[in-house]
Amino acid sequence: MLCALRTLLFTVFLFFYQQGLANDTYNLEEFRQHQKKNLKQSSEKQQNCTGQPAMKPLENIRIGFVRLNLASDDVSGDERLEICENYEVAVQDFKHLDNFYFDYVDMGVPQYRKVRIQRVLRLLHRIFAMNINMTNGQSREEKKVIITTAQSLFEQFFSSVNINGKSNPYFNYFYSIPEAPLSNYAGVNNDLVLIILAFLGPHFLYKEQLFTSFIMLAGIYTGQSYDQAFDSALLSENINEYNSPQSLANQLNAAGLDAGTALLIGLTAMASAAFQRMNSGLESQETLENLLIRCSPFELLPIIYNNIACHCRPGRSCPVPGVMYTLYSMQEFTNRILGFDSRPTLSLASSVESLNFLVDYIVLSDSAVSDSEGSVEDSDSGDQDLSIVVQQQNELIAKLRQELANQTEKEEAGAVGGASAETKKCPLCTDRLTDVIALHSCGHAGFCNNCAERLIREERECPFCRNVPLSYMKILDMSLP
User: Fold this and answer.
1) pTM for this one?
2) CA pair distance 411, 303, nearest whole angstrom
3) Domain-by-domain residue ranges, the chain?
4) How crowded is residue 481: how many other Cβ atoms within 10 Å of its Cβ?
5) How far apart are CA 392 and CA 319, in angstroms?
6) Exposure string for 184-201, b = 16+ CB within 10 A, e = fewer
7) What is the mean pLDDT of residues 423-452?
């Protein structure tokens, strides 16, 4: 009887364990076992050296409405993603999420590293989607509390000179405080900055602020990462080895910079999607692949090339190759870094839309640099690096506009019956515009009727300026069909 009972208990345990594995989309149980094994080995080493046990439990991670439960043994698989009633964010949880991402990517054998990058980015995308949908389901008053909570933590992290009596290295990271000394970025964790900006920024930053912050972060993030890689001789100093998106990605993969680059690409795209969904009130239901097509941060490739070129040709200008400015080059680069291919579903119409978006993005970032630093005319001055950046950004805008014109010509040439296939879309829901709506009080236009009505009815803020519009009007656009 005892033997039969043990067999039965073992069978039941095995059944539930296998069920947990079958429902473990993100391999969280494998991650927990890997962490427990490493923590046990570290604890045994420390105990042998000091005589004191140092076993540290796995940390739970709370991001907004979502808790990633890594500590409990009574749940498994996807059940570890738990929905909470209230919105809560803390810097400590963002630090845990940062550690979790890189620990996850680095576990296991190297040949499956790309698979782990994909899985953990899908998990982050799921956390974003759950937070977006929960936020959109809240009442007007509850949404205001969420915005205030996100903004308060963001401003505390980036606008406080001192935290807990110590100098704050993140103070004025984004140059947002006039007359204040700029951050020297010493002692900062750029991964943490990226995570905080991506999860909190879409709640309260207006469009120009969000774009400018991401463009600034991308330059700092990749610049410091590549500085360290070149100092350690992990990257080649031969500029000819970076002349295509494929070779550029291969160099970053070989140097172990794929995880950080994937995080930068993924979170920038997720933040852009979150901004659109939370301002439109629409649910997030798209896959990670579709999100990377619709919100791909195409501006990153020239920035990455520039930060590498300054090491290969120090003190000399090195123009970005024209191939780096195309949409398909960014898709190829993303494919090589993340390990999957979303290019076949990228239509010509979405290409034109993305190019329009990118031109606006770079113009905004270029204006931000010009306003904060002033014009630089002498390339041999002490501000040589800045002048090169400004010049290359201007070249980027010109090339993008030419690419946009070429794509539009192709689209018009392929239109049925001679009608133009060019379409205009609402910046929030991305549906095709049949009418163009402008908001009273701020004058921003380009919304569809449904999104404009939602902004007024729910007293939402204009995504371009964060003013609350009181009414809207239809404007005549002769370019619409």
Assistant:
1) 0.75
2) 29
3) 62-69+77-346, 436-475
4) 11
5) 7
6) eeeebebbbbbbbbbbbb
7) 81
